[in-house]
Amino acid sequence: MAKEGANKDEEDPIDLTIPDEFDVQGPKLNTLTQAITYRGIKESKKAPMRQSTKENLQKTRDAIHEYTGSLETDKTIWLSI
User: Fold this and answer.
1) So where are the chain's domains?
2) What is the pLDDT of residue 27?
3) Contact criterion met (CB below 8 Å) for 64 and 70
4) Taking the model in full, what pTM does it have?
5) What is the pLDDT of residues 4-22, one digit of tens each?
6) Does position 24 have pLDDT exceeding 90, yes or no?
7) Which pLDDT does position 37 carry in this prediction?
8) DSSP letter string over the chain?
9) Contact 57, 77 (CB under 8 A)
10) Distance CA 58, CA 74 (A)
11) How far is the C-alpha of 1 from the C-alpha of 7, rounded, in Å?
């Protein structure tokens, strides 16, 4: 496949645009760390919740409701762990 790609007459289009939040230059670039960059990438691509996670959250919510009478959100359940 690499050989086929090298023998192509025309290049494949590649989007090289930089999102504004990652277009840092000058002093900003000096303060950019790997941790900040990773956090930015992680926040920009939220993974969809798995079905088993949804089911477990609902079981947890039902158990809490049965025990305390209150209905908790996904956020409060995660924060309490």
Assistant:
1) 50-81
2) 63
3) yes
4) 0.44
5) 888 888 888 888 888 877 7
6) no
7) 81
8) -HHHHHT-SSPPP------GGG---THHHHH--HHHHHHHHHHHSPPPPPHHHHHHHHHHHHHHHHHHS-PPPHHHHHHH-
9) yes
10) 9
11) 10
